[in-house]
Amino acid sequence: MAPLTRSRQDYLKALWALAPGGEPVAPSRLAAALSVSAPSVTHMLARLSAEGLVAHSRGAGARLTARGRREALGMVRRHRILESFLVEVLGLDWSEVHEDAEVLEHHVSDRVLEALDRVMGHPAEDPHGSPIPDAHGRVAQRALVPLAGLPRGARARVRRVRETDARRLARWKALGLVPGARVRVSEVRGPEGVIELVIGGRRVVTARAALEGVWAEPVRGGAHGG
Question: Does any domain span residue 135?
Answer without folding.
Answer: no
